[in-house]
Specification:
alpha/beta, Nucleotidyltransferase, domain 5, 5-stranded mixed beta sheet, 14 helices, 5 strands
């Protein structure tokens, strides 16, 4: 547990809470065997080049690498997509859009690239997290504006993203219903940045054969899905408007060259299976 606690700095919004439960069970029922499932594990199939930052090699060798997150959700998508479509497409662009958000490029059910990096702060804009950011902004806030490091951390993790841009909420439903220009701008930026990341991941796979939406927003926000696909329609994906509005399992027209699919996230299923495999 101590080793995992030392890694909490890389996932401060998640790791401490998860480990608190582990410690509580260990204290109350020390004889009970516990298993842990890691969101980062699914991405260990990424090629080394996709893990690297352009930093001094010594830092990479010390573990400053892109690890990725939401791996349990992507593992579930890889397992179930074939059931939905009859056969699993080879190149899959998967989007886990919830309070946290990320994208993953999968070939033959394995991760080859993802939007999150060393921490769950990287990549797509999220409800309250900033996503991709020029590191110079952080340096400016600390050096030139004398902002304490903890305050910067709080800003990037809890006051940015959709909440920060809109000044209203980090909830997409609230923003979509709001008449405020700031709400519209936040949604526009969110969808634009997601689509831009999809373009990058398409390069990693040299195209894609299917797009999957998952997570609370990905599963339940037809307007968000529609705007993202509009950005990407030149690459082949299209939506059946009625299916999209109904939150159907298959969101694209019948016979579409690039199917668009909705998969309900079920990380618990993957965790249960991993746990059972150790019994």
């Amino acid at each position: 547990i101590e080793r995992l606690q030392a890694l909490a700095v890389f996932a401060p919004a998640h790791q401490p809470h998860n480990l608190a439960g582990v410690q509580a069970v260990a204290n109350a029922l020390p004889e009970i065997r516990q298993t842990l499932s890691f969101d980062t594990a699914f991405h260990r199939t990424m090629p080394h080049i996709a893990e690297l930052y352009a930093l001094p090699r010594a830092l990479s060798e010390q573990g400053i690498l892109r690890f990725g997150f939401h791996g349990l959700s992507y593992a579930h998508i890889a397992e179930t997509l074939g059931e939905v479509l009859g056969a699993r497409p080879n190149r899959v662009l998967a989007l886990h859009l919830g309070s946290g958000a990320s994208a993953c490029a999968m070939i033959d059910g394995k991760s080859i690239a993802t939007s999150m990096g060393l921490t769950a702060l990287d990549g797509l804009p999220m409800a309250t997290r900033c996503g991709d950011l020029d590191p110079g902004v952080v340096l400016h806030l600390i050096k030139d504006r004398a902002m304490p490091v903890e305050e910067v951390s709080d800003l990037l993790y809890t006051k940015s993203g959709l909440l920060g841009v809109s000044g209203i909420s980090g909830d997409t439903k609230t923003l979509l219903e709001s008449p405020a220009q700031e709400a519209k701008e936040a949604i526009d930026l969110y969808c634009y940045r997601i689509a831009s990341q999809c373009g990058s991941l398409a390069v990693d796979m040299k195209g894609f054969d299917a797009i999957v939406f998952s997570g609370g927003v990905g599963e339940n926000a037809p307007a968000i899905r529609s705007r993202i696909i509009q950005h990407l329609d030149w690459l082949g994906p299209t939506l059946d408007d009625a299916a999209n509005e109904a939150n159907a399992e298959v969101l694209s027209p019948k016979g579409a060259s690039v199917p668009v699919v909705r998969v309900v996230a079920d990380e618990e299923r993957i965790i249960a299976r991993e746990c059972a495999s150790l019994l």
